[in-house]
Amino acid sequence: MRLVLVFLLSIVFLVSCQSKAETSKSVDMYNASGDMVGTAQLLEQPDGVQIKLKLEGLTPGFHGIHVHEYAKCEGPDFKSAGNHLDPEGKEHGLMHPKGSHLGDLPNIEADGGGLVDAELMLPRATLKEGKMSLLRGEGTSLIVTDSQDDGVSQPSGNSGSRIICGKINSGDKEASTESPTDPTEFNEKQEE
Ligand SMILES: [Zn+2]
């Protein structure tokens, strides 16, 4: 009986911990036309946040990818997401002596078929609370650009236009701000 009680208490403890400090996050990625073109799995690690990225439909070759300030992916230009996430007031670029932005990531490469299957690391970042959190405020976003990031040019490494965007935010907040009935979404579900 006592063992059962301890067991139940530890489950309650684990569940309550998970709801406060998130350790993983699944992000849906959309192109400028609003089509879902992949996912990013974010995982809290001791030295930062790991990002497992799967995308399709890109131009073969290298593309820039960055975490941006706001969880707003309004197409087609995704300017709504703001600048690169930079809570420390640094310069842009992984190769810049005064860099880098917290949201700066190495370029990703799409293969001949336009597919990306990459594992990236965002050192210093966290999914927990605090200055370096990707879920701070209303959240942030993950954006892929047309061209590759040169690693030094200001403010964003000459990486071209923003082509894919995914919101990194807590699911609860999103549910409360979005309208419950979206006719387009309903139609899409009906077609499936
Ligand atoms: Zn940057």
How would you characterize the overall build of this protein?
The protein is α+β, with helices and mostly antiparallel strands. The protein has one domain (26-178): Superoxide dismutase, copper/zinc binding domain (Immunoglobulin-like, Sandwich). It has three helices and nine strands; from the N terminus they run αβββββββββαα. It has helices at residues 2-20, 171-177, 183-191, and strands at residues 24-31, 36-45, 48-55, 61-63, 65-68, 108-110, 116-123, 140-145, 162-168. The chain has a seven-stranded antiparallel sheet with strand order 5-8-9-1-2-3-7, with no helix packed on it. Strand 2 (36-45) and strand 3 (48-55) form a beta hairpin. The protein is globular. Residues 173-182 and 185-192 have low confidence and may be disordered.
CATH architecture: Sandwich
> How many strand elements?
9
Q: Mind summarizing the main beta sheet?
A: 7 strands, antiparallel
- Mean of pLDDT: 87
The termini sit apart by: 49 Å
* Helix percentage range: 10-25%
What is the count of DSSP helices, taking H or I runs of 4+ residues?
Answer: 3
Hetero groups in this structure are: zinc ion
Structural class: alpha+beta
The overall number of domains is 1
User: Which strands sit side by side, in order, in the main sheet?
Assistant: 5-8-9-1-2-3-7
Tell the overall outline: globular
Strand content: 25-35%
How much is the radius of gyration in Å?
18 Å
CATH structural fold name: Immunoglobulin-like
What is the CATH level 1 assignment? Mainly Beta
Signal peptide: 1-21
Protein name: Superoxide dismutase family protein
Keywords: Signal
Region (Disordered): 145-192
